[in-house]
Amino acid sequence: MYADTGTDAETIRRILRNAGDTWAVVGLSNNESRAAYGVAAVLQRFGKRVVPVHPKAERVLGEDGYASLADIPFPVDVVDVFVNSELAGAVADEAVRVGAKAVWFQLGVIDDAAYERTRAAGIDMVMDHCPAIEIPRLDR
After folding, report:
1. Over 80: is that where the pLDDT of 3 sits?
2. Would you say 49 and 77 are in contact if contact means Cβ atoms under 8 Å apart?
3. Nearest to 102 by CA among 19, 17, 10
4. How far apart are alpha carbons 78 and 122 in whole angstroms?
5. What phi and psi values does residue 93 have, to the nearest 5 degrees?
6. Which H/E stretch holds residue 22?
7. CA distances from 71 to 1, 83, 90, 97, 138 (A)
């Protein structure tokens, strides 16, 4: 199990408040029954621009989709990862390559080695948390 891996309240607060408002949501599709869709909708309600990243590259929640982070033609602030833990490390590495300011692994997504690589690159990271749960708590 991971120990001090950026899941502290200060890192969560810093990402949600200061990392920026353009969030690439990896795994987001038009399937409204998937968690990624609901979380993306919450992020939008809190003023975040949601960029769908999915092999289908479909338009979701009014935003054009892209097949990969590298295909997005503008800067991304936070990469929110909705893929399984076995695939998440490669997404974190790609987030570093495209210059994201933060990486957020969703509930149940854990990769300690990816966390270490991402933090070593100077990028904030959260694992095993959900921004849709955390963002409403900011003003408490």
Report:
1. no
2. no
3. 19
4. 13
5. -65, -40
6. strand 22-26
7. 33, 18, 15, 12, 32
The model's pTM is 0.93
Q: For residue 115, how many other CB atoms are within 10 A of its CB?
A: 22
The 10 Å Cβ neighbour count of residue 75 is: 11
Q: Please report, for residues 41, 130, 133, the alpha-carbon distance to residue 137 in angstroms, rounded to integers and kept in the order given.
A: 17, 12, 7
84: number of Cβ within 10 Å: 11
**Residues comprising the chain, all counted:** 140
pLDDT band at 123, cuts 50/70/90? very high
Q: How far is CA 54 from CA 16, 23, 67, 88, in A?
A: 23, 14, 5, 13
Virtual CA dihedral for 118, 119, 124, 130, nearest 10 degrees? 60
Torsion of the alpha carbons at 42, 45, 49 and 51, rounded to the nearest 10? 30
Overall average pLDDT of the 12-20 stretch: 94
